[in-house]
Design a protein that fits this description.
single chain; about 230 residues; alpha/beta; Rossmann fold; six-stranded mixed sheet; 7 helices; 6 strands; about 35% helix
Length: about 230
C-alpha cells in the first residue's frame, strides 16, 4: 500500500486582496500580513517533509512557498547552497487571467457586477474558469498524479482561482455544465488543504486553519451592531 500526500496552499495576502481588487496574473507582492500568514502556514505544515514543491510563476505564490518552507523547519533538504529554495515555478497553476477587469474592485465596479459569469465564459480579455480547470487538470495528471502514486509528499502554492480549479480537477467539486457558473467557496489565504492518496487514489481531504489568516479575516469583518435592552 503506497500513501501519497498533496498539500495545496493559496498565497498569503496582498494589498489587492485587502482592497478587493481583481489581481489575475498581475504580479502583486505579499503585504506584511501576507508575509506573516506565509510563515504561519509553514509552522502548521511542519509535520510534512516534502519530496517536491511547486508554485505558480507569480511572486506572491513563490514567496509564500519559500517563507513557508523556511518556517516549517522540516524541509531544509530543499534548500540550495546559496540559501534559496528548490521550488519549481509553473505557469499552469497561475491565477485566472482577469483581463480587462485586472486591478478593479470587484465588489463595486458596475461593469464587473453586470458581467454574466459562466464556467465557459472568458472574462473580457482574459480566461474562463473552464480554461483554468483544463490547464490545472493537465498539470495534475501529468506532473502530480505520478508522484502521488509513487507515495511522494508534494506541496503546490498557487491562487484562489487555481484552488477552485483543483477542487474540480480532483473531483472534490463537480464540474458545472458549460453555461453555469462554477461553484465557488472562499479560499483563505495561506491556509493548507491536505489531500491524501492511497495507491494513487484520493482517500480524503481536510483543511488546516491558519491563525494569521483567521486574524486578518476577523479584522475585515464589519463591526457588529450594538444590542440595546428594551428595558422590559
Amino acid at each position: 500500500m503506497t500513501k501519497g500526500t498533496l498539500v495545496l496552499i493559496r498565497h498569503g495576502q496582498t494589498d489587492y486582496n485587502a482592497q478587493h481588487r481583481m489581481t489575475g496574473q498581475r504580479d502583486i507582492p505579499l503585504n506584511d500580513t501576507g508575509v506573516a500568514q506565509a510563515g504561519e502556514a509553514g509552522r502548521v505544515i511542519s509535520t510534512f517533509v516534502f519530496d517536491k514543491v511547486y508554485s505558480s510563476n507569480l511572486g506572491r505564490a513563490f514567496n509564500t512557498a519559500a517563507l513557508a518552507l523556511e518556517a516549517s523547519g522540516s524541509n531544509t533538504h530543499l534548500q540550495n547552497a546559496d540559501g534559496s529554495w528548490n521550488i519549481e515555478q509553473r505557469a499552469e497553476v497561475a491565477e485566472l487571467h482577469t483581463g480587462d477587469f485586472t486591478g478593479r474592485v470587484h465588489k463595486t465596479d458596475p461593469e464587473i457586477l453586470a458581467f454574466k459569469r459562466a464556467f465557459d465564459a472568458p472574462l473580457p480579455g482574459g480566461e474562463s474558469d473552464q480554461q483554468v480547470v483544463a490547464r490545472v487538470r493537465k498539470f495534475f495528471e501529468e506532473e502530480l498524479q505520478p508522484r502521488l502514486a509513487r507515495g511522494e509528499t508534494v506541496l503546490v502554492v498557487s491562487h484562489s482561482g487555481t484552488m477552485q480549479a483543483f477542487n474540480i480537477a480532483l473531483g472534490i467539486t463537480a464540474a458545472p455544465t458549460a453555461d453555469i457558473i462554477a461553484p465557488r467557496t472562499r479560499i483563505a489565504n495561506a491556509t493548507p488543504t491536505v489531500v491524501e492518496y492511497t495507491d494513487g487514489v484520493m482517500t480524503g481531504h481536510y483543511q488546516i486553519e491558519n491563525p494569521k489568516e483567521l486574524e486578518a479575516a476577523n479584522q475585515n469583518k464589519p463591526p457588529k451592531a450594538p444590542k440595546f435592552s428594551s428595558g422590559k
